[in-house]
Queue: 4 jobs
Job 1
Amino acid sequence: MNKTENQKAWLFVLPVVLLVAFNAIIPLMTVVNYSVQETFGDNTFFWSGVMWFEQVLRSERFHDALGRQLFFTFMILVIEVPLGVAIALAMPRKGPWVSVCLVLMALPLLIPWNVVGAMWNIFALPDIGLLGRMLNGMGFDYNFTRQPFSAWFTLILMDVWHWTSLVVLLTYAGLVSIPDAYYQAAKIDGARSWAILRYIQLPKLKRVLTIAILLRFMDSFNIYTEPFVLTGGGPGNATTLLSIDLVKIALGQFDLGPAAAMSLVYFLIILLLSWIFYTLMMRNEAQQ
Amino acid sequence: MAKVTLKALRHSYMDDPRTDADWALKTLDVDWQDGGAYALLGPSGCGKTTLLNIISGLLKPTEGQVLFDGKDVTGLPPDQRHIAQVFQFPVVYDTMTVYDNLAFPLRNRGASEADVDARVREIADMLDLTATLDRRAAGLTADGKQKISLGRGLVRSDVNVIMFDEPLTVIDPHLKWQLRSKLKELHQRVRITMIYVTHDQTEALTFADQVVVMNEGQVVQIGTPEELFERPQHTFVGHFIGSPGMNVLPCKIRDGSAVLGGIAVPTSNAARYQGTGHRLEIGVRPEFVDFADDGVPVKITKVSDAGRFRIVDTAHELGRIKLLIGEGREIPSDMAFLRFDPERTQVYADGWIVE
């Protein structure tokens, strides 16, 4: 057989290659470039090998930020996923209230992130904010600008308010797509609501929940704007998450090398954890 | 096991039904014997699924009663009616094994594990599911899943009625036949009242002892497959059952006999006509029409071969007439005369047979 020489097909791929190149590969390579070099200004660079990586991985500061980040993401997932599922289950499936509920749920998602941060900052101020005044009035000693616990409490509450809706909407979409016959069969089989949740709803929601968990994981692990506006990472370093720390190093201290190395490590951690999540959640799918 | 009685049943999906068309189910009185195999046959949208859901308790009728063995169950939810249902699309609990699927209705009712085990194995054996008991239900083919659905009904010993809502829709054609005979065999073995909803006449006629034909929310005829074929009570039954369907042509009645386009045609029932109908029609199945030396004049328009017989399409001045002619018979080429079998030819007034 004669092999036809035809390389024109590459032209069709070209737009995507260019897009990905400018969008991801070139910026990423710039960071890789910085991460293996040392500079003393004047735009002169020296090869420094894996020095920055070693420094980042050994740095106490990085470990602390990573720990705080993991704790934050863990709390977000543990609270938002079950809460989101519970709210979606409680929402009506038919009637005029459906659209009311959907709009109410979508509202927080429509607010720009820095506005959310600013809103909650003012809302939680101990002297003039509604939440702050109320908590203090109820006898709690609450001041998120001074106490780490109060700062964390506010930070998590803000994220729950802002992002639980995403889990709710995804879960709700999954719930309404379950055919009525399943509920009818369950009724006939005498299943109680717990059994319906366990054997019909949760299994049918598996795919959307996987997406919801992955999205919430990646977004909360990358979060920057809202905590930056709310606490700025404080009090002290109490709420300095990875992204906030990264910006401090890169733009505050202008340490390009360490910041680049940290970015790459940060990126690889997200990639690795996402892969683990996905594999674990899709493990049973493959067996069928 | 139970006898099912529907008493003056009516249902509308509207809050305030006014006209006849607002009723999805028009007044219905039906008696189904204990242990019978019944089919509900009708085109899509004729109300058969509505009726099924009323019997299973998933829907509450606007008016009337549902009785099981004379006991009023109209207000009872599905789980207290002791019924089972197999749906159009297979419903299985994906995360469970086949065994757990079959055990589910029993465990929900608090049966002991020993009873569950004995019962599940017995039913699995009946349905040829024993080999797959330990497999995940999600991995089975559509017909396997439908068997599980049916099995979940059969495991319960208290089941009054098993209902099937077009259960073979998603099954491959060659397995349809297998599953259908399996169903028939099972019915003979367990003798539970079964109600089978379908729009496929073959399924209805092969499964049921008695077929209930529905159209536009009302029952048009209840009868054995033979009765539906030989003496349709309504022109709709004539059209809907049989392939090709019954020939229906407008006619007049003069001196107690039917007249089709000026020619008197002997029928089984024209003499009984009392003169009340607005629209008179004559109905005869293609099987009971034959060529003759004189009679109804027609022009032959098409002959199609259907294997053991041929379908001849003819044009009469009042409409088309089809007839079935056996292999090897000669067919006139252009003009011909037709004769209808008088015993199998009926007159219909406003769609209903004249009695």
Job 2
Amino acid sequence: MRELTEKASVGIYLVQDGIFKYVNPKLTEIFGYTAEELIDKKGPKELVLPEDWPRVEENIRKQMSGEVESIRYDFRGIKKDGEIVYVEVYDTAIIYRGRPSIVGILRDITPQVRAEERLKHINAVLYGIRKVNQLITREKNRHRLLKGICDALVETGGYYHIWIALINESGKLVTSVESGLGKTFQPLNELLKHGVLPVCGKMALSQAGVVAIQDQRATCGDCPLVEKYGNKGTMVTRLEYEGKVYGLMSVSIPTRMVMDEEEQVLFEAVSKDIAFALHDIELDEERKRAESALRESEERFRTLAEKALVGVYIFQDNRFLYANPAFAKIFGYKPEEIVGKLGPLDLTHPDDRHMVIENIRRRLTGKIESAHYTFRGIRKDGSIIYCEAIGRRIEYHGQPAIIGTLMDITERKRAERELQDAYRRLQRAYEELKALDKLKRNLIANVSHELRTPLTIIKSALELAIEETDPDKRNKFLGMAMDAVARQTLVIDNLIEAARMEKGQREFNITDVDIADVITQVSDEFKSMAIKNDIKIEVNVKQNLPMVKADQDKLRYALRNLISNAIKFNKPGGSVRITARKKKDMVEVCVSDTGIGIPKEEQTRIFEPFYQVDSSLTKRYSGAGLGLAIVKEIVEGHGGKITVKSEVDKGSTFCFVLPIKEKE
Amino acid sequence: MAKILVVEDEPEIRILVKTILEKAGYSVVEAEDGEAALRLVNEEKPDLVLLDVMIPCIEGWEVCRKIREDEATKRLPIIMVTVRTTKEDVQRSVECGANAHINKPFDQKELLDTIKKLLGEASSS
């Protein structure tokens, strides 16, 4: 019997009065004591974890009192080295040596319990991980997610406590969350905030994978958590996804589980899930930031475009995709009447469309990047404006489009045109002034010529006449002198009339004048001059012409000028034709010649004072340039009108009308 | 018998000058305008030219300049006979290379003396 108990694989004991009376070797092995240390010295109370003792004591009482015959139960025992051992006992009350005692069998069930615990714990962790993954899918707020993760992993009983610290690229703490620590975390958090990492953190950051610490007291130095959790095991790892470290996570679990491969695998798995979630949130934030930056920039662009004072537009395929209010206003539309409905050509003047199309084509085909040009636009009301456009090619929805700005430069154009007009007017005035200056200089030369030429004839003719003895020849010279005197007289008359005209003196001595008489007399004056110039004078005056009210001298003067010109500007062998007829309540007098004629562009100017058709050809016909101006003044002074018809090289016809009745 | 080209567009003056010159023993060639004058200078090879300023086609001063430009006629004596009588006009006659400037109306004697003097100088040089 003794041998049986000594060799048994279960612990066997006898307790009397709370003290071991027998323990077999297996029992001593289980608790780490020697038999001598237990027998007669210690009792069950010393081997039972104090927490479990009341239950054990109650079971013992039940045995001793005979309530039950035998009983089976388990408890946690304390080994000599303080370690816990799970045991199962079968107690039976007996009477040993006349005294009630308990004999029992004790089995070490620690491995079973531990296995169960491990399974339970792994389940708890798995459950926690499930909750973590649920959170990850729905929680996009970083802090709330981490807090939720910590709480889930602690609440499910996976870990005693957990803390997560996030760091930025330069290794500085960004934020930290915890669960299961509460106030205990504060000192560590302070350290983290100052960039001081605990031992476990340093270890985790320096290497991938799980760092497991079994003996915190030995390893963790003065980490503030050691005080409370020193007897626990710690697992710590960095939160890493695709090479980026987001921070670290530390948990405490029962020490004996720290080295459990499966625990470590699960811990690493949850850390990876968390790191992925952080990465996802980061991506999300980046996307949101980019989106909001885009929105902001779009908003800025739109505000700028909408408020811009210049027209802003985008078009594609001859349709506006965008037109700001300023653009629409320039063309007299509302933006919504333009966008999607009209194209640039609808707003372009037909004459400029070809040019605009060409400009658009060159940009769309990439020949040029941008163009700056002006064109005429058409407003909604059909009015025409000048536009200046600067546009460049862009890609819009993958297709080439044109974006640009446009300004209404109608006012500027108008101002430019006015400036040009003013400049042209000034230029013309300057030219006229120059011409007038030249005319005045010519006038002096011409007057000198007109006066000195007859004088030359008179002087030379008289000198020759004086020397001449042959009476015929002498008379010829005297005749020449006489003609020259007549010519001189006309010139002087002209000058006097011109001087009067300049002073604005118009004295008309109006009487009834027989125009036919005047024509006959004046044309007779030119007989010898006509013969000398080989010109035939024809007079064709209608019978019974009414008398006109006129200043006879001035009328003569006018006729004299016209006939003199008709001879002067004629060609040898030509003719001068003088006609007079009644025309309504007027009498029309015409003097035609077959001479050199007057170019069309000169025909109105010949009536200007001092004007002479400026050509060297006419030098031989030079005069003071006053005749026609005076004639016009005289005719108009009578309430009449003078006109000219002329063809170069064919001749000219000057006609004037005089009223039959006196001018009112 | 020296030959004189009279360039003058006023027929009366031309007739009178021609009469004066012929009486003085010169032979006379007449031109009405600048173009004819330049042609006749070459065709008739006159010994002297009386040149009016205000003539058709080419102004007298310009005719004078052209005569001076031609190697064959650059020494031909030229007298401007003109109604252009201001200081500037005389200056222009000098500039275009005329040998003398006579204002219209002129004295017969003055005209003939000038011609004689120029022909004399021309023959002696």
Job 3
Amino acid sequence: MQFVQQQRVSSPFRAARSGHRGAPPRSAPNYVRGVRALGVALCVLSGWSCDPFGVRFSDVQSAEYYQSTTVRTVAVPDRLRVMTYNIKFGGGRIDFFFDCHGDEVLMSKDQVIKHLTGLSEVIVDYDPHLLFLQEVDTNSKRSAFVNQVQWLLDHTELNYAYYASQWRADFVPSDGIGAVDSGNAILSKFPLDHGQRWALPLRSDVGGLTRYFYLRRNILTADVDVGFPLRVVATHAEAYGQDGTKRSHIDLFKEQLDAAPGKVIGGADLNTLPPGSNKVSDFDDSVCTDEDFEADDYSAEQTWLRDLYDDYAADVTLAEYQAQQSKYFSHTTDQAGFWNRKLDYLFTNLEVVEGSGLTHQDQAHGGIDTMPLSDHAPVSMEVRLP
Amino acid sequence: MSAKKVRGFFASAGLAIHLTATVVAGATRPDASPKAPPTWSSRHALTLPKNRVDWATTTASHWGITNRTELSLHPVLVFFSPRAELKVNWWRERGTKGGANERHGWALSSLFSLAYPTRFLSVVSHSGSLALLPANTHVPPALEWGTGVVLSRYLGPVVTSLRADLAFAPHTESDVPLLDFPFLYQRFATFYAPLVPRLGAYLSAEFNRTWGLDVESVFSYLPIDPNFGVRRAYAVESALNVRATFLMRHRIAAGVRVSTAQYPVGVRTHYLPTLDYHFLMF
């Protein structure tokens, strides 16, 4: 009734005002004013809707903090064991559609827990003080919404973690992927602080809709309390594209290492090969034919890691790698084959214990066959604390 | 003939029927008295007069089968997401028999709906863009049954209603992944839950012969199988529409839908701008 009363009151008021001026009202007709109001309303709504699936991040923002349900106090050792592991969101060796080896999209919770159990056995076996993870899911439909950061904290000796999402959407309307939240994490036995997520440039060589839902890669930084300020830096560089995005990700990763106020350790899947690699293209396991998503040819990237190797110690020196390359290969998409390229790295300005660098490929190298657990093998090293 | 061609044929046929009917309607519509605005379809208890058709473009169209029975379905989307609803008016106070905007009193109607969610779930199961479910999804046949009541209070240019619904869609055991796309989530929840109860409140107001407003809010309880990663899910979907009627029988409605729901990823709110064109036949 309120509407009616207002109408009855306002109409005579308008008539009286018109009469006073001695001319008909000059205001726009009702429908024109209504259309204008609708336009304003739609503009406001479109503003609300500019990120309807919640995919965007700030350039710099705090990372998500995690803590194990049971925190175990650990004394700072003389040597720090460090590991980096791209765990493929707990997908094991299921043939997913994006690998072009199969058509699977979603896993059951049982499958995810089984794979995480295998991953935790590798982690517990090496018992790292610091663990860099790539492709770890925290809230994704494809991994049955298992929070893998929390699960790994609760099933290893690691106590604290920071997580930075690199792919987050309430719903990805493609291939039945649905909700996804996946990214990088740093797990530690020692307290972590100042976790920051630094946004990396987006690919520019894909269409607008693909770009909206595409991975928003980042660098994750945090400080570890080991009795002195130790900065840790993690990233997962772009895998596809020829637009220079991958190069910029690698350069920005190095810039973060350079910007550390003191000692620093970086762990990353850089999606490129070390300088001097013998094989740089035409890998047997690359079966994707969509050129936008091919990661098979590194021939133009052979010097991209040169500065990192020049300025930092790595899990394996370039000389060691070039002398025996297959021993350090950490990736293959073909579970029936064997590791055929090195994409995963650890860099530091601390002293690396000689001969401690290890790529956990199988029982002969690391003690556990890691091929069934992910399309990457974990890489580890020991560093001496000052 | 491939499934894609069949879909294309039905889409073309549906569009052709829609357009033809619209043209025929324009040629045969009765003269409308400027003093008595015609009755449009609504969410409220009263039905369209016998033989009147309210054609809509993005929402369901309505047909007055008798003066107390109204059928609604979308003439094109019915091929992708078959759904029909029957509204039967059982009781109305004498004061509700006046012309539109002049009705006063209570009215009560029942609703019965039938849908075939299998069709839509299969259509959105493919690879590539706009695939809401994986390509290897096998959707079993399922019929969704819905029943409800709507009680309306007519106050001249203002109408308020309360509506209660129950829906269920029995089917054989399936491993169809949860369709958790915003707005579709609550509409297809019956496929994943034994029973979905809904409670809605509606308000319509006429400002004058041109402008009107519809507001609604529907709460759905979604007891989805916990194996899908969500417990005690719910959805609250609200809509605000401003509509303009012109030349007596044409109407444009624009507004926004807001959905807040408990998904496996947590509670999320989404907005959907809406636009619809209606045309009244007979």
Job 4
Amino acid sequence: MILSNEAIKKAINEGIIEIDPLPPLDETMLDTTALNLRLGNVLSVPKKSLSLSFDLKKGKIIDTLRIVYEQKEIPSDGYPLEPYQFVLANTMEHITLNIKQGKPCYAARVEGKSSLARCGLMIHFTAPTIHAGFSGTITLELMNLGQYSIILRPGMQICQLIFEAVEGEIILRESQFHLQRTPEGIK
Amino acid sequence: MQVWLRCNAISEGMFPNEVAVEAQNSDGQTFSLFADKRIIKKENGSTYLKVTLLEKTENESVIVLPTDPHELQSRIVRVNNSFLKEA
């Protein structure tokens, strides 16, 4: 079940959902069933003309990612995301979806905004889920699929977060997983 | 319940607000993830990552990592209790 704006406020007030900095919880940021999030001030931009490939089985992917991307602060007059250009960004807000025993628990999905989608902006590829227990800023995979550049500015509303209630306790019962050593459950 | 997981190493992340974290599961496998600096603390020469504790037994615990690790299939990880510290 998707949380309404009032249910989102309640979960924030109860500390189950933490958002920092907390945006104004009014109609500018809180839709009927979603919270708008803002763009942070740094982009992670892939370097051009490197001769390498991502291979998750070889070496540390983190090291490769660091080689491939360079951080660029978004200028105050904006960063033009050119047609078919791909960059990583993150939200200004740090989100925590707390798992507290005996309390409601929430997961979320990050989605684009229709106004930006009409310009051709995609804000994630196939990885919209923010699982219960997540804590951090949300990484956005931005790609301009349109024909014209899109100006990105720090603090602009870039995406929306839809919260969903998790049913059932998130507990690993001893009988279920305890001391399992393989995905098949062989001890 | 939140607890602190002792990390093997931290290094620069892909954004100014994050770091790359390396830690170890109870099988000795090293895993890495990007984590926000706000859920990292340094104490007595060690670095810790804030995680959610799901289950604790005599020697091992099951925790939920705050973001996806690159080398493992799940954010739910088994670690030795000696790597954990109460928040």
